[in-house]
């Protein structure tokens, strides 16, 4: 490519980029916007020309040319919790790679803000598509989202009307339980989930996976689920109640998520119960604190889920007739030192009769 003079670098129109790259304006526009086919070699040449000229595509111009906003709306119930923050990072990175903008809607459950988001802000349709993260909206809310005639992709959820990216939550809990069973534990409690007015899809799936694994091991009579919201403080409080009675104390816990598991570890420590000698604990997530607490867990990768959701959404934006799909990612067992074989350190059951 010819050397660019200082005067030329002050020019930043699409025509100048096209001239420098030796292509038509329409080809240059397609290469930079990502709309329409352009060969990899041509795209690389146009991109290099744009960089050399310091050209920044105008979002307004692209919108006029393509009929799109170049913006994706992301709706999630929380932005300050680990899982949601990680998914958002994955979404943002994938959108930035494609030169697309992001508008974030924080739809906190039960808040007036949530109602306004669905009734007002989303109705303005300042987006080419929506990614709903962990919302599992009520049926009328989902109907509202789909009524905008824009593609919708969900990160976790169970609707057959949108493409969904999720992990196999039932399998995660089943394998977590299986890990403890293989270590010789039979008195295994599932801690967390089921604390709200209605079970969240993820929580219900994880409880079901635990129950099925216990039943398959012939331990249906040992099934015990102690509800708690998915947070460290509530995991701690529930674990204190669970572990303070030696007659009912389990030898192992499957936590609904890592935050609950870490809360249980703190509770055990304060009650003088050694982990894992006296109590094995396994979580689900691989939270950023999991390694610090040496927590055995079923690892999911939220950033990957976010990036995958963007891929599905872009596919539907470019092909409105594309079928909705479910992408189910398999979690991976990460063994650290919070689980161990059942041994002498485990507290024996003390029957009420003595």
Write the layout of secondary structure elements.
Layout: H1 6-9, H2 14-21, H3 25-33, H4 40-53, H5 59-66, E1 71-76, H6 82-97, E2 101-106, H7 112-121, E3 129-133, H8 139-146, E4 152-155, E5 163-167, H9 169-182, E6 188-191, H10 201-216, E7 225-226, H11 232-243, E8 252-255, H12 258-270, E9 280-285, E10 296-299, H13 302-318, E11 326-329, E12 332-334
Parallel strand pairs: 1-2, 1-3, 3-4, 4-5, 5-11, 6-7, 6-8, 8-9, 9-10
Antiparallel strand pairs: 10-12
Helix pairs in contact: 2-3, 2-4, 6-13, 9-10, 11-12
Explain this structure.
This protein is of the alpha/beta class and 354 residues long. Helix content is 42%, strand content 15%. It has helices at 6-9, 14-21, 25-33, 40-53, 59-66, 82-97, 112-121, 139-146, 169-182, 201-216, 232-243, 258-270, 302-318; strands spanning 71-76, 101-106, 129-133, 152-155, 163-167, 188-191, 225-226, 252-255, 280-285, 296-299, 326-329, 332-334. Helix 2 packs across helix 3. The termini are far apart. The relative contact order is 0.11.
What's the gyration radius in Å? 26 Å
Say which CATH homologous superfamily of the largest domain is assigned: Response regulator
N- to C-terminal distance: 88 Å
The second-level CATH architecture of the largest domain is 3-Layer(aba) Sandwich
CATH topology category name of the largest domain: Rossmann fold
**If helices are DSSP runs of H or I spanning 4 or more residues, what is the number of helices?**
13
Q: How much strand content do the residues show?
A: 5-15%
């Amino acid at each position: 490519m010819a050397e660019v003079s200082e005067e030329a670098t002050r020019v930043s129109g699409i025509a100048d980029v096209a001239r420098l790259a030796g292509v038509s304006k329409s080809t240059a526009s397609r290469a930079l916007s990502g709309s329409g086919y352009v060969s990899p070699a041509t795209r690389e040449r146009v991109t290099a020309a744009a960089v050399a000229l310091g050209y920044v595509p105008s979002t307004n111009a692209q919108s006029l040319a393509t009929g799109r906003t170049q913006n994706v709306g992301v709706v999630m119930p929380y932005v300050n919790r680990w899982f949601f923050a990680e998914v958002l990072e994955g979404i943002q990175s994938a959108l930035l790679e494609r030169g697309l903008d992001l508008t974030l809607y924080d739809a906190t459950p039960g808040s007036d803000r949530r109602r306004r988001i669905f009734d007002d802000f989303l109705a303005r349709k300042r987006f080419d598509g929506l990614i709903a993260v962990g919302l599992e909206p009520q049926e009328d809310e989902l109907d509202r989202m789909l009524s905008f005639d824009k593609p919708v992709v969900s990160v976790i959820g169970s609707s057959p009307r949108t493409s969904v990216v999720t992990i196999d939550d039932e399998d995660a809990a089943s394998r977590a339980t299986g890990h403890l069973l293989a270590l010789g534990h039979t008195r295994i409690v599932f801690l967390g989930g089921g604390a709200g007015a209605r079970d969240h899809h993820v929580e219900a799936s994880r409880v079901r996976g635990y129950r099925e694994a216990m039943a398959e091991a012939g331990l249906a009579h040992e099934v015990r689920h102690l509800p708690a919201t998915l947070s460290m403080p509530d995991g701690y409080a529930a674990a204190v109640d669970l572990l303070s009675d030696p007659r009912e104390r389990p030898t192992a816990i499957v936590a609904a998520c890592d935050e609950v598991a870490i809360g249980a570890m703190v509770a055990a420590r304060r009650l003088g119960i050694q982990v894992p000698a006296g109590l094995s604990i396994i979580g689900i997530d691989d939270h950023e604190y999991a390694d610090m607490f040496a927590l055995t867990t079923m690892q999911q990768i939220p950033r990957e889920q976010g990036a995958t959701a963007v891929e599905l959404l872009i596919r539907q934006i470019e092909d409105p007739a594309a079928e909705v799909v479910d992408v189910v990612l398999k979690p991976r067992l990460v063994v650290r030192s919070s689980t161990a074989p059942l041994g002498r350190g485990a507290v024996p059951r003390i029957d009420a009769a003595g």
